């Protein structure tokens, strides 16, 4: 092998290794409830944190592309509530205004784009509405 190839080969290998090692995947992220229990009612604010699972750090600047709130955990998937994205107070948290008209468990279904990730993060978070 020529000396110039001895120098170039490790550099190419490191570049390839670095590009795959640095890339996470959509499964490396999850939404979690900041407060998993809240009072039932109209215009309830549900705040979720997007977490990078390997580091445990909150992920700011994701773009929410789809939301849905329903009562599927209590067998009432047809009971869907409207959802509106509202400003959050902290980086890495995402707030939504929705109606939780009766006590019970609600699922928040989300799809989000994380900057630098080619795949869409899909998550399901269960929250509980109480009297």
Automatic annotation (TrEMBL):
Domain YtkA-like: 24-108
UniProt xrefs under Pfam families: YtkA
Alphabetical keyword list: Signal
Domain of life from the UniProt record: Bacteria
Classification via InterPro entries: YtkA-like_dom (IPR032693)
Signal peptide extent: 1-24
Protein name: FixH family protein
């Amino acid at each position: 092998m020529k000396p110039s190839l001895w120098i170039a080969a490790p550099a190419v290998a490191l570049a390839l290794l670095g590009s795959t090692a640095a890339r996470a995947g959509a499964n490396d992220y999850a939404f979690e409830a900041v407060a998993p229990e809240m009072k039932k009612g109209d215009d309830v604010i549900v705040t979720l944190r997007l977490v990078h699972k390997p580091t445990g750090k909150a992920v700011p600047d994701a773009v929410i592309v789809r939301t849905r709130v329903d009562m599927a955990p209590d067998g009432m998937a047809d009971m869907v509530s409207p959802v509106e994205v509202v400003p959050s107070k902290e980086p890495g948290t995402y707030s939504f205004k929705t109606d939780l008209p009766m006590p019970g468990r609600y699922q928040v279904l989300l799809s989000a784009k994380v900057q630098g990730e080619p795949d869409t993060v899909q998550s399901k978070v269960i929250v509980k509405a109480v009297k």
